[in-house]
Design goal:
The chain is mostly helical and 179 residues long. Helices cover 75% and strands 0% of the residues.
């Protein structure tokens, strides 16, 4: 065998080994992308859950905040202006978190089932008389009104949800009939 034939043979082997290396590299990268995607979904779910827990913790942080929330569920107008601001802030944070969850779902980071679990909790709040009264008192700027209304409508579309104070014993007495 002459030098040119050996070089040709080595070149062919090199191309074969290179093709296998490219295939192995692509397979490795595909596995890594899948693992990273799974981790991103898990991180997004965890962040969403933590934000939801923070919302609940906000209400339960002290007895005054809890009582404002409890009374607000029954009657928004019964609250003083500073208490209305607290109640308003909480409901707006619920809407904001639901919007965040919908964006994560559209991006494929949350499943519709995961979003539905939190939507149910938000629906239980928004179906209370005080939250409905709160909504009626608001005036929105035209450019933000449609987006906020769409979030609220999406939350209230959960037909199986019932008012929060109907399911939690420590909120019993929060209905407007008891005030």
């Amino acid at each position: 065998m002459d030098h040119q034939a050996i070089a040709q043979l080595l070149g062919n082997y090199g191309e074969f080994v290179g093709a296998i290396a490219v295939f192995v590299t692509l397979f490795y990268l595909a596995v890594q992308v899948r693992q990273n995607t799974g981790q991103l979904k898990l991180d997004s779910f965890e962040r969403s859950q933590l934000r939801h827990i923070e919302l609940i913790s906000y209400v339960l942080q002290d007895s005054e905040t809890f009582n404002v929330f409890k009374r607000g569920l029954a009657s928004y107008s019964s609250l003083q202006s500073d208490q209305q601001a607290l109640f308003h802030t909480h409901l707006m944070r619920c809407l904001q978190l639901h919007g965040y969850n919908l964006q994560l779902m559209q991006a494929g980071a949350l499943t519709s089932e995961e979003v539905a679990l939190q939507r149910r909790n938000f629906a239980r709040v928004f179906k209370c008389e005080g939250a409905e009264e709160w909504w009626r008192t608001l005036e929105w700027e035209p450019d933000s009104s449609e987006a906020i209304k769409a979030l609220r409508d999406d939350i209230l579309a959960d037909c199986e949800a019932f008012a929060l104070y109907q399911s939690l014993p420590f909120l019993q007495g929060a209905s407007s009939k008891s005030f």
